[in-house]
Amino acid sequence: MAQLPTHSSAWDMSPPEPVDLSSGKYVKLWQGPQHPGITGNMSLELTLCGDEIVECKTHVGYLHRGFEKFMERRTFIQNFTVVCRIAVPEPTFNEYLYSAAVEELAGIEVPERAQWLRALNLEMMRLASFVMWTGGMSGAFGLYTVPNWTLTYRDYLLDLFEELTGARIYHMYIVPGGVRNPLPDGWKERTLEILKGTEKLLYEVERVMFNNAVFKARSKGLGLITPDMIDPYGIVGPNARACGFARDLRKDEPYLVYDQLDFEVITGTASDAYERAWVRQQEMHQCIDLIRQMLERTPDSGPFQARMPNVLHWKIPPGETYLKAECTRGEYGYYLVTDGSEYLRRVHVRGPSYTHAIAVMERLAVGTNIADIAGLMVSLHTYPPEIER
Amino acid sequence: MKLKDLISPFFVWQRAFEKPYTVSMRPIEERPGAPAYRGFHINLSEDCVGCGSCYTICQNHAIDMVEVEGLEAKSGDSGLRPRFDYGRCCWCGLCVDICTAGSLRMSNEYAWFTTDADEFRFVAGVENKSWDGRTGGYHRHPDYHLFPPKRVEMDMLGPEESVESFTEVVKGYSEEQARLEADRCVECGICVATCPAHMDVPDYIRSIRDGDYEKGLKLMYRTNPFPATCGRICTRRCEEVCPVGILGEPVAIRWLKRFIVDQVPAQEYQRILNDQPGSSGRRVAVIGAGPGGMSAAYYLRRKGHAVTVFEAEDKAGGMLRYGVPSYRLPDAALDKNLEYIRSLGVETKFNTRVGRDIQLAELLDGYDAVFISTGLWVPSSMRIQGEDHPRVMAGLRVLDEVANGRDPGIGKSVAVIGGGNAAMDAARVSRRLGAEVTILYRRRIEDMPADPEEIHEAQAEGVRIVIQAIPVEVTDAEQPGRVAIKWGEAEMVPDPKGGRPRPVLQEDRMHLDSFDTIISAIGQGSDLDFISKQDQEQLEVKWGKFIAGDYQATRMQKLFVGGDVANRTADAISAIEDGHHAARGIDRFLTGSAGSGTP
Question: In what side-by-side order are the strands of the sheet with A27-31?
């Protein structure tokens, strides 16, 4: 048994004592950058003793994107086509936060109908993202039937996105000033129909995944996040909620129309991979409920776009703002600085993966088994593209 | 561990016989895209005007504006069409959203296979693609705009107020209004190509957005020394072609021009424009101090040539002063432009009519070059019996009298014959003099050559317009001092050759109305009596108009012509351009060099 590094408290983030590789007891293993368990292109440099991990170093840099710098050379309207690429499975949160931040700096008031349509879109996105994540989670533990089901349902949801926004992945629907178009005819009915099917799917997933003895055995107790880690590591979203922290920006600092919706923050206690999955499972049911509430209340008429200046030479007065919203993985934030020109002076995107996939992952991986490392990573729900903006 | 946990995994079989949705088995069935799917680009080439807004907005530089074989640039159409590069496109659809003509959209196809990679770079709508003509796909929603489609409304005097005086009707934009309106410009430059003077419209509109009016003024004076004037009465062909006007209202280019000029006081002009004419030792005579003559004088003076302008009237401005009423163009605005030109050392000889006070031959002898821009001052005849009746007046005479501060004595009821701007001017001036006014026009309202705004304002001010009315004869009225006009109704007969319909007099539907005065405003001709018949033949004068060659030159050495007397459009902006163009030509002629091209 290797000597595991010890930390005196959660705030102690000093690197562990280097292991003596010449001793012959250790093996270096690189997981990634193309491993499916990694949910995107990044690498884990694992030091193993037997099949137990004694050290985990994360490596990013495989995406070479530099969106934030790129956006400083694009006009305000052009950037809205860029931001959706920052978190591929969840473009909508980027679209919303970018648009809302630009609107705040430009002093644009978004019509009510657009606010409902935006919130509706965000919840649809949350559902689609969680549905796909469920497949990843079960796949990481060797249960390959669930991904087939959930990806089918994600496709049904993407069909709805395609119909509403004109695209399946990069929707580019939420645009500074409002949204691009109202709901198509019959879309509400089709959505309700698919939600019904999704709900049925969730119960089936519960049966074959959450009640599965193998899944339970492998995920319970895996990647335990202790309450004292939450603040030092900046852990947010379902990862924090599974630890009993009822933190949800939709409730704590409501944006769009969330203060008019009826929902409670879902929490857990066990704070392991299973609990995190279970919180997300509950949140999918909550999503479906929220979408139904919104479909009922979204206005059918009225403007869906504010009066916009000519976007071809749109200048925004000097200012800065930080706006945040609750994405599937917690607080997602956009920090924008404008200098009165046609371009952004600075943009910074705060994605929860930055902490979850690096600091938290390096800490939690130690002591786990090589076979569980993919499951651990997925249970934190991370998107490497978000780290490399 | 519960028994349930061991049994429930076996439920994975429950969907075993479900038809797969995500992955379809071979053969791959083509699934239609959603009705609004952003697929491949479709451009209705005949609707596209090549404004290039799609090119401007594309963040991937996936669009180039290219020339297309068989497609000529024409008025209001750059002749260029967008070429898409699918190696760069990200299918965001911003090009569709910004398309001013609404010609661009996307089809809802998913897949396109080709073995030739070059095919992925194509001019949509020109190179035929399998999806051309499909109806589905992404369109811009009609309530979604990336630039404001409606123009900022101009504050104007109401008709009740405007008809009471000669105060300028248009109040002009405030700074905030001007910036909002300037914001609507998409900077395509189609207006530049269309403007006879090729004014740099997008750049001076940009100067409004930047709040740099001095720069705007400088830009305008590069091509037009009459911006205060054109900012009020220009025929604004630029606005007719402005692509923003295809689906919305065109940018109010004329009012924006006026706004810039109004922001800069006259005493600042010298400092801003910094014109420092040198002395070339050459002398040029200009005949006529209208927009054409004074424009030539300005650009010649900037080249350092000594300029003397000969003018028959006692003030400069020509038709702008005597033919345009002051409620449209106040003297102060015109003088602002003229005084600046004169301040550069342009000599003006008023009350000097060439042919009466001085002969053309003397000018040709005494000067190194002569520019003729005498305009059209002879009212056209109605060619009906009795038109020499003392109560029949020419529209131009009425306007001239009023401009000179005299009462033309038109009485209390007036008929105006004609449908051009001069007719509208005569009618609205008559209203201001307190007369009841009826316009008789031989065709329909939509056929009137007058500016639609003028027609609308005339009607608002209480002018009655009788259309399809052809004057037949003018006679004495029963009451002494009045005049009667016999006119007949006309039927519009379609032209078999496809031209505009022709009015045909209906002999059985004749009317006789009497008025205090009949004002004839059906056009003007030139007075070229100061040129001998022999010279006129040499100069190829046709229908009272010169035929100008390159750089407004004529077949007679030293002699250049321009303005209404030498062009077909006969408006201020064309005369200004003629003057500018002639100045370039005269400078080349005098200095014997090709010059820099921009005097």
Answer: A27-31, A43-49, A52-59
Separation CA A319–CA B122 (nearest Å): 42
Chain A: give the shortest CA distance to residue B598, in Å: 29
The domains found in chain B, sorted by start residue, are 41-123 (3.30.70.3270), 159-265 (1.10.1060.10), 275-378+527-591 (3.50.50.60), 381-522 (3.50.50.60)
Contacting residues for B543 by C-beta, under 8 A, at least 6 apart: B525
Contact at CB, B183 and A309, closer than 8 angstroms? yes
Q: How far apart are the first and last CA of chain A?
A: 39
Q: How many cross-chain Cβ pairs, A to B, lie less than 8 Å apart?
A: 121
Contact at CB, B187 and A166, closer than 8 angstroms: no
Q: What is the CA angle B332-B335-B341, rounded to 5?
A: 155
Q: Chain B neighbours among A 318-357 (CB < 8 Å)? A: none
In a domain, A367, yes or no: no
Nearest to B268 by CA among B208, B340, B347: B340
- Distance from chain centroid for Cα B281: 38
A291-345 tens-digit pLDDT: 999 999 999 999 999 999 999 999 999 999 999 999 999 999 999 999 999 999 9
**Any B CB within 8 A of A91 CB:** no
Name the A residues in 43-72 with CB < 8 Å from any B CB. none
CA distance B215 to chain A (A): 18
Q: Per the CB < 8 Å rule, is A308 touching B145?
A: yes
B250-299 pLDDT per residue, tens: 999 999 999 999 999 999 999 999 998 889 999 999 999 999 999 999 99
Residue A319 belongs to some domain of the structure: yes
Is the Cβ of B179 closer than 8 Å to some Cβ of chain A? no
Interface contact B94-A308, CB threshold 8 A: no
Q: Is A216 in Cβ contact with B9 (below 8 Å)?
A: no
Q: How far apart are CA A84 and CA A70, in angstroms?
A: 13
Interface with chain B: mutation pick from A159, A312, A314, highest number of B CBs within 10 Å: A312
Please, what's the largest Cα pairwise distance for chain A?
72
State the Cα–Cα distance between residues B563 and B573, nearest whole angstrom: 9
**Which residue bears the tokens 């005049």?**
B483
Report the predicted TM-score, pTM, of the whole model to 2 decimal places.
Answer: 0.90
